[in-house]
Write a structure and sequence with these properties.
The structure is a single chain. Helix 1 packs parallel to helix 2. A hairpin with a 4-residue loop joins strand 8 and strand 9. The longest helix has 11 residues. By secondary structure, this protein is of the alpha/beta class. Strands 1-4-5-6-7-10-11-12 form an 8-stranded parallel barrel, surrounded by 6 helices.
Length: about 250
């Protein structure tokens, strides 16, 4: 049985870690380098770093900060934000990332996913999908959740797998920052459609939420931000709880 992963997420804006609710009302959550070091020491399985304003500001990811974070950790490290070419992927990987995540760029150029996967391997190609329910359909959004598309979530996830994505990072915008639990029904449905791992994001508020996302949502990894940043749920305690309740995690 594959080990389920616990992944803290660093949403970066102006060089600081931030967190909001439903992608809005961002507040400062600390220094990304210090947080990264703490998470690696606490037993996080991976770390995700998202430069959330890079696409909106039409600039590249902050490479020097990526390099500094990578130097502090010894766990797999995924970086996303403003990545729209293979050249940028190569630069991010050279600065210490193990995987890269694309979101808006994949929507504007789906073949970018195939190119990155072919050049660098599917194992480092994560496609992030931000979606919310609109008229009973899950609709994909771009630019940090600010722009709605006409793309349906599950169709898009399948297409990304076909083009070479090694993982899907699905964030429910409706659940983001609410601490009301993950979108388990949607995650379970997506899991039945795909063969690649799914990282669940949006809604973590308790240890039970993680138990549910693994058991009911069939997710391969649970990603969260504020509950870790503000030490509401220490990672060692979360993993012990999951282990005691039959979830295979790395202690």
């Amino acid at each position: 049985m594959l080990t389920k992963r616990i992944i803290p997420c660093l949403d970066i804006k102006n060089g600081r870690t931030v967190k909001g609710v439903n992608f809005l009302n961002l507040v400062d959550a600390g220094d990304p380098i210090e947080l990264a070091r703490k998470y690696a020491e606490d037993g996080a399985d991976e770390l995700v770093f998202l430069d959330i304003s890079a696409t909106q500001e039409e600039r590249e990811t902050i490479y020097d900060l990526v390099h500094k974070v990578a130097a502090e950790i010894n766990i797999p490290f995924t970086v996303g934000g403003g990545i729209a070419s293979a050249d940028k992927v190569e630069k991010i990987l050279k600065n210490g990332a193990d995987k890269i995540s694309v979101n808006s760029a994949a929507i504007y150029n789906p073949l970018l996913v195939r190119e990155i996967s072919s050049l660098f391997g599917a194992q480092c190609m994560v496609v992030a999908i931000d979606a919310k329910r609109i008229h009973d359909k899950w609709i994909v959004h771009t630019h940090g959740g600010k722009k709605a598309t006409e793309i349906e979530l599950f169709h898009w996830a399948q297409k990304m797998e076909e083009l070479g994505a090694g993982e899907i990072l699905f964030t429910s915008m409706d659940h983001d920052g609410t601490k009301s639990g993950f979108a388990c029904e949607a995650l379970s449905y997506m899991s039945d459609l795909l063969t690649i791992p799914i990282i669940a994001s949006g809604g973590a508020g308790s240890e039970i939420d993680f138990l549910n996302v693994f058991n009911e949502g069939k997710a391969d990894a649970g990603l969260a931000a504020s509950i870790f940043h503000f030490n509401e749920i220490p990672i060692p305690e979360l993993k012990s709880f999951l282990k005691e309740n039959g979830v295979n995690v790395r202690l």
